[in-house]
Every structure is written in structure tokens, then in C-alpha cells.
Amino acid sequence: MTAKDIIKITLNLVVVYLIGGLLLAGVYAKTSPIMYKNAIVEKERALKKLLPDADKIEKLGDWKIHEKPAEYYIANKAGKPIGYIIQSYGKGYSSYINVLIALDTNLKVLKIDILSHAETPGLGDEIETPDFKNQFVGKGLEQIRLVKGETKENIQAITGVTISSRAVTDDAVKNAVAFLTKVIKSGG
Question: Where are the domains of the chain?
Fold first, then answer.
């Protein structure tokens, strides 16, 4: 193989990579706005699912947990507050777990929803089951604590999934409720 052949092959590869890169950039430019709009629609759907009685859900502010930006909202019905929704993250076994928490006006949990995670399928993803998530209903800040073993007062850990259970309970939900309690009680 001569130097001329090597240069020819190199130029051909550069041209192919440039064309491929331009095609990828074009596809991204076309799909990025669509993905952004879909993400907004999906978030609105998730918020409405948590507090379906609300006729208006307004963003109150932003906060950070684990250096991840999150938001919190107030839900109104006929102009009166009926609850709050706060987004939070918990550091799980394999990923950060993205959680939405709905609270009533007394700051008791109404419902939680796991938006996304990358926990171990068949094990860590047990945090998505109704049995686990329903334990949070009616709990206030003092009751949101993970316990290994039987409990009705607190949150029972999922056997074999303690790290993911703790990430949701003690990290995501408890920190979010504590933050929102501080904000609401200070009039913010």
C-alpha cells in the first residue's frame, strides 16, 4: 500500500464521517423540539395524575437535590389550594430515582409516582409497585422513615431492595417533604 492509497482511504473515511455527522445533526435538530414538547406534555400529564381534582397546577419554584434541578407546584381548585406537588431524586443502587410527591394542604402525602429510574429489573424496580408506593399515603414528615420489618407507622423496606427503598423513602420523599414544609411554613 502506497502513501497515495493511505491518503485516499483517509479522505474517504473523513468524508463518510462528515456526512454521517451532518445527518445526525440534522435529525437531532428536527427531533429535539418535538422531544422537548413531548416532555412538557408528559410532565403535565404526570402532575394531573397525582392531583386529578385540581383545575390549575402552578409552578411555585425550583430547588436542587443531589445537584439535580427539581420543581415544586401548588394545585388549586376553584382558586383555593388543595395540595402541593414536588419533584425529588433519591440516590439508588444503580441510578438516581426521579419521584413526584403529591401532598395535601396539611403536608401529608397523598400519592407518590416514580417517574424514572434504572434500578435492577425484577428487584430494584419493586419500588414501582402499588404495595410499596401506597405505604406513603397519609404519612407526614415524622412518619416517613424506612424500617426493616413489619410497620404500619412508617415505611416498610422491600426485602432485598433496601438501597432502592431507602433512596425513595429517606432520600427523595423525606427530603422533599422537609424542604416543602420549610418553604410553606416560611410563607414562600
Answer: 1-50, 55-185
